[in-house]
Design brief:
Layout (H helix, E strand, L loop, with lengths): L1 H6 L6 H10 L3 E5 L3 H9 L4 E4 L3 H4 L11 H12 L6 E5 L9 H14 L4 E3 L7 H9 L4 E6 L5 H4 L9 H17 L3 E5 L3 H10 L4 E4 L7 E4 L1 H4 L17 H17 L14 H11 L13
Parallel strand pairs: 1-2, 1-8, 2-3, 3-4, 4-5, 5-6, 6-7, 7-8
Helix pairs in contact: 5-6, 6-7, 7-9, 9-10
The chain binds 3-methyl-2-oxobutanoic acid.
Length: about 300
């Protein structure tokens, strides 16, 4: 997939997000939670890599994102940082890390930037978070907003469902997006809202919108990597398009390995190492056990 890098090889930065919107260039964002997935996503030419707090349910086996800690986000972001060269690296601020005041929020965000290597942080909420966003931006920390279905509010929302279904709710979402823009956010995620509202928001603000379940008119699209490659469990929401079935591919590979070990097919002689002939001869003389002398020692 190197050709994608050749087409748009320049590093994606916070200022370049707005330029891309002005030029009408669609951006692509995917999650990554560790070094190998970060390298693959970056090398495939993805513009923004999000270390989402979805790491909680996707990788750590939590029921939702609520239990994810700041230490866990720092740990995963550091791993992703080592695998990313071109994409803009955004890390989620976990639930509880920005809810107790702007000072606590700044301390948490600084860890993600300074210790973990993120280039921007993302937090959930609109108007009610504008003050925190303003504070972080004042501390030189780029912030991505996130409105609509905000998974950290799962208990308040009563589940994961479409947001903004009434005209009042739609107006509130537009106000939220404008409040985030005014507070200095560099982009805003729109999650699971009707496409008409996403289009209106996208046309009404100058920062890029990053849609997930929000229709085709957003400036960027984001998906959870594990959903895209078919490495997740349970029923996927309608906006997920799986381009591969890695769960099936992995299950098949592991089952064949298990079978080969149990039947003695693995490892073959070419997958193991032999003694050098003189050592084999000595061993045979000492022990009476015949050592294999014909294989060469492989360097790898
Ligand atoms: O945590 C996450 O993966 C996210 C995306 C779904 C936007 O917030």
């Amino acid at each position: 997939m190197a050709y994608l890098k050749q087409q748009r090889p320049e590093k994606v930065t916070v200022p370049s997000l707005r330029l891309s919107k002005e030029r009408g260039e669609r951006l692509v964002c995917l999650t990554a939670y560790d070094y190998p997935t970060a390298r693959i996503v970056d090398e495939a030419g993805t513009d923004i890599i999000l270390v989402g707090d979805s790491v909680g349910n996707v990788v750590l086996g939590y029921e939702n994102t609520v239990p994810v800690t700041l230490d866990e986000m720092v740990h995963h972001t550091r791993a992703v940082r080592r695998g990313v060269e071109r994409a803009l690296l955004v890390a989620d601020m976990p639930y509880g890390s920005y809810h107790t005041g702007a000072d606590d929020a700044a301390r948490a965000a600084l860890r993600l930037i300074k210790e973990a290597g993120a280039e921007a942080v993302k937090l959930e909420g609109g108007k009610s978070r504008a003050e925190v966003v303003r504070r972080l931006v004042a501390e030189e920390i780029p912030v991505v907003g996130h409105i609509g279905l905000t998974p950290q509010s799962v208990h308040k929302l009563g589940g994961f469902r479409l947001q903004g279904k009434t005209s009042d709710a739609a107006r509130a979402l537009l106000e939220d997006a404008k409040a985030l823009e005014a507070a200095g956010a560099c982009a805003v995620v729109l999650e699971v809202i009707p496409r008409e509202i996403a289009r209106l928001i996208t046309q009404s603000i100058s920062i890029p919108t990053i849609g997930i379940g929000a229709g085709a008119d957003c400036d960027a699209q984001v998906l959870v990597l594990h959903d895209l490659v078919g490495l997740s469990f349970g029923k996927s929401p309608r906006f997920v398009r799986a381009y591969a079935n890695l769960r099936e591919t992995m299950t098949d590979a592991i089952s064949r390995f298990n079978e080969d070990v149990r039947t003695g097919i693995y490892p073959a002689e070419t997958e193991s190492y032999a003694l050098p002939p003189d050592a084999a001869a000595e061993l045979t003389a000492d022990s009476g056990v015949t050592a294999n002398t014909d294989a060469e020692i492989e360097s790898s």
